[in-house]
Write a structure and sequence with these properties.
The chain is of the alpha/beta class. The chain folds into three domains: 2-95 and 206-227, D-Maltodextrin-Binding Protein, domain 2 (3-Layer(aba) Sandwich); 101-193, 3-Layer(aba) Sandwich (D-Maltodextrin-Binding Protein, domain 2), CATH 3.40.190; 252-321, no CATH class. It contains nine helices and 13 strands. It has helices at 10-27, 39-42, 59-66, 125-134, 147-155, 166-172, 216-223, 228-241, 312-321; strands at residues 2-6, 31-35, 72-76, 88-92, 101-105, 119-122, 139-142, 161-165, 189-193, 207-212, 252-255, 258-261, 272-275. Helix 1 (10-27) crosses helix 6 (166-172).
Length: 322
Amino acid sequence: MLRLATRRSSLARAQTFGVGRLLAQATGDDFELVAASTTGDDHPEQAVAAFDAKGLFVDGTRRAVLDGRADLVVHSAKDLPSGSAEGLALAAVPPRADPRDALVTRDERPLGKLAAGAVVGTSSERRRVQLQAAAPQLEVVGLRGNLDTRLRKVADGTLDACVVAMAGLQRMLAPREQGGVGALEVGVRIAALEPGECLPAPAQGALAVEARTDDAAARAAAARVDDRISHTRLLAERALLAGRSRHRGAGAAVADRRLRQARPAGPRARRRPHGGPGWLRRAGAAGVPRPRGPNEPDSAPEGGDDGGRPGARGRRRAALRR
């Protein structure tokens, strides 16, 4: 029996249940959820920016693993501090979900068509800055509460819209047999925001599974559900985040055996290449992973298209084309 630590919210339980199902399929072991509270959960009345602490939404669940109440903990990877936790190791990153932000409205109106003075809620300073740049006619306000609470505030007219993570919506609204709450009949519409409108946070859409460094069995079990490309993208985006503002948006695209940092669209936008392993040769555009086809493997094979590394002449030609 694998014990998985989780926060108590519907979203946290849904995503942890999803990882549990993957583990059960890969290992044959059953699983159970171990609920724990975090500092951020204990103080829902405070804005996130008001806390003078790191790991607001992971501290309590990490403690559950460290003190032996759970074998593994499942986090929204964007909640993790940039530094590692003593005694814990990143054991797995399951296949990443859609990393984009989502605009929730009552009438499917796009961001640029929201009326002047429309009130849009978000819990993120990163989103607030980008939303005001993309649509200065909006009034962007702070927003706390669980995901289902945020949707209801749009539905009841408290807000004209809110911006949340698309992956969270997909996981929470999954059918009940998959650990979600099913469709919420609250009368809202959801549309994805492209990176040129609102660049996602580093690691958004990814889940991080941690285990104790001295628990070889739990680490081995978690490794069975690790996705190499999702894991490497996560490490690249966390490396970008380290030592920089937590409000910065980022996305790692993998192409031509290089990692590239995605930036918002605009006259000053550009991509900055980063070296990466040779097997990382395919990815989606602008940091959005391209959906895999039904028969496509989870991870690209080692080496280039021909199964090997290009020669010096081929590398020079590729450099000239770029």
